[in-house]
Design goal:
Residues 1-11, 228-241 and 293-305 have low confidence and may be disordered. A hairpin with a 4-residue loop joins strand 1 (100-102) and strand 2. The protein starts with a helix and ends with a strand. The radius of gyration is 24 Å and the shape is elongated. By secondary structure, the chain is an alpha+beta fold. It contains 8 helices and 16 strands. Strands 1, 2, 3, 5, 6, 8, 13, 15 and 16 form a 9-stranded antiparallel β-sheet that branches. The longest helix has 9 residues, at 89-97.
């Protein structure tokens, strides 16, 4: 079978192939119809086969099926306001899948390259942090482990609260919100990643409350102890050197992108009977709920995003 496929792709036409059929004989519009059922990476790989496949892979009808139904609204957040009516849909998909920063670079939206669905990340720089301006309690440090290249570090507080909001024309879908946090402070030493847990305390004394609200009345509340891991206990987790953990806040449903959906969210531990500290807070992500296979226990562990 491999030899037969090889012979089909070696020439562009039947005449050039000694009368035998080849992939070059398939009409471009037929190839385009097939491409509508494939993922963008698969389309790009097949485009290298021959001229008909390359032409079909650039067809607006193919890429229109990969773009969100409201992609025109998404173009409004692009920093360069070009006349996208004259741009190929393939190039629009490429521009949106690379990621578009907005709100002074503190929020980023992009298309998943496989499904073409909307994903978003919101930096803690765009959030309200209680006592966030007091350097005794909070500070910021740069890191390549964040999409935004900077994370907030809670050194010690009694009242822990981080909140934010976003208003965006999300396409119809079911979305999950997660907070991305890290116990301890990390840095590079002699090329190796090292974690410091000097200030990490208090998170095992009470759960953190996660809450989200939407402009159409949806509301979700969840609580997790910040050290919870589905693999080990807290002490074993610290011995592993620390990882980024994603805590699920909840889900919300969008049935229409007009009007835009406003989402408000918060993460808080306001039990003032004890202090807590030694926690990095990176960002909030908003992702279609079934986009990635995740463990649905409220906690997902990752080393980098």
């Amino acid at each position: 079978m491999g030899a037969s496929l090889s012979s089909l792709t070696e020439s562009e036409s039947t005449a050039a192939n000694g009368g035998r059929p080849s992939l070059g004989d398939i009409p471009e519009n037929c190839v385009a119809c097939v491409f509508m059922y494939l993922t963008p990476p698969e389309i790009c790989n097949l485009a290298r086969l021959n001229r008909a496949f390359r032409g079909a892979a650039s067809s607006d009808s193919v890429w229109d099926s990969k773009l969100p139904v409201n992609y025109h609204q998404l173009l409004d957040v692009l920093p360069q306001r070009e006349n996208y009516e004259c741009v190929r849909k393939k190039d629009i998909f490429a521009a949106l899948s690379r990621g578009v920063a907005f709100d002074d670079g503190n929020k980023e939206v992009w298309l998943d390259r496989i499904s073409g669905r909307i994903c978003m990340s919101i930096s803690t720089k765009a959030m309200l942090i209680t006592s966030g301006e007091d350097r005794r309690h909070w500070n910021w440090f740069p890191t390549e482990e964040s999409r935004f290249h900077v994370v907030a570090y809670c050194q010690q507080v009694w009242w822990f609260e981080v909140s934010g909001s976003v208003k965006f024309p999300f396409p119809p879908d079911i979305y999950t919100l997660t907070f991305r946090v890290h116990l301890g402070k990390f840095h590079k030493r002699l090329g190796r990643r090292v974690c410091n847990f000097e200030h990490t305390h208090g998170w095992d004394l009470g759960p953190v409350r996660y809450e989200l609200f939407t402009s159409d009345g949806q509301h979700s509340v969840s609580e997790y102890s910040i050290h919870d891991s589905d693999q080990d206990d807290a002490s074993a987790y610290l011995k592993r050197g620390g990882n980024w953990i994603e805590y699920k806040m909840g889900e919300f449903i969008v049935s229409s992108s007009d009007p835009a959906t406003e989402v408000r969210f918060s993460m808080k531990q306001i039990d003032c009977t004890h202090s807590k500290g030694g926690l990095c807070v990176d960002s909030v992500s908003i992702t279609p709920s079934d986009l990635k296979a995740r463990k649905r226990k409220g906690v997902g562990v990752s080393t980098h995003q």
